[in-house]
Amino acid sequence: xxxxxxxxxxxxxxxxxxxxxxxxxxxxxxxxxxxxxxxxxxxxxxxxxxxxxxxxxxxxxxxxxxxxxxxxxxxxxxx
Length: 79
Prior knowledge:
Blueprint: E1 11-17, H1 24-32, E2 40-46, E3 55-59, E4 62-66, H2 68-71, E5 74-78
Antiparallel strand pairs: 1-2, 1-5, 2-3, 3-4
């Protein structure tokens, strides 16, 4: 399962990220924000128009907006 498919409010742990699917600058930004293997996350909100993009992801006390294509590169395990 990927982060893109996680239900709103449900918690998960990122188990792997396919960094090759992302542009190098996007990958660096996501790593700097802590969105890497081992991070515990939850989907706080999804956009309502244009394919439900972006996705607001809670990581710790921080909320980060990520594109659906980025979330699709993150394999998760629900908690």
